[in-house]
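Title: Prediction job returns without error message
Component: structure pipeline
Severity: low
Priority: P3
Assignee: unassigned

Description:
Job completed but the reporter wants confirmation the result is attached to the right record. Sequence as submitted:
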Amino acid sequence: MRIHSIFMLLFLASIWMFCSSPDRNSAGPSPAIPGVQQLTQRIARDSLNPVWYAERGKLYAINEAYDLAIQDLQQAIRLGSDQVDYYHELANVFLDNYRSREALEVMEKAAERFPDSIGTELKLSEIQFTLKQYDGSI
C-alpha cells in the first residue's frame, strides 16, 4: 500500500511539473511577417492612404493570415474605392480562404462600379462559373 502511494505521488508530481513547464514544442512567439511592421508604421503616420492598407493586406494574404488581409483590403476599398485592383485582391483572398460566395459579392460590386473593366468581368465570370459547377458543395 505504501509503495502504491509513493508511485501515485511521483506520478502526480511529474504531471504537475510537465504541465507547469513551458511548452517544449514552441520556440517562442511566431516570427513577424517581414514588411508588416513598416507598413503598420506608415499607416500610423498616414491612416487615410489606402495604398498602405492594400499592401499590408497583400502581405497578410501571402502569409495566409486571411482575416487580417480581409480587414485591411476592406479598409483600402473604403478609403480608395476607385481602385479596381483592391476589389480583385479581396476576392482572391476570399477564394483562397474558401469563401467563394463572398468573393462573388465583391466582384459583383466591382462590376457595378467599374463596368468597363474587362479584368473585372473576366474575374466575375470565373467565379460565377466555379460556383455554378460546384454549387452543391457549398
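Comment from assignee: result matches the submitted record. The domain at 34-137 is CATH 1.25.40.10 (Serine Threonine Protein Phosphatase 5, Tetratricopeptide repeat).
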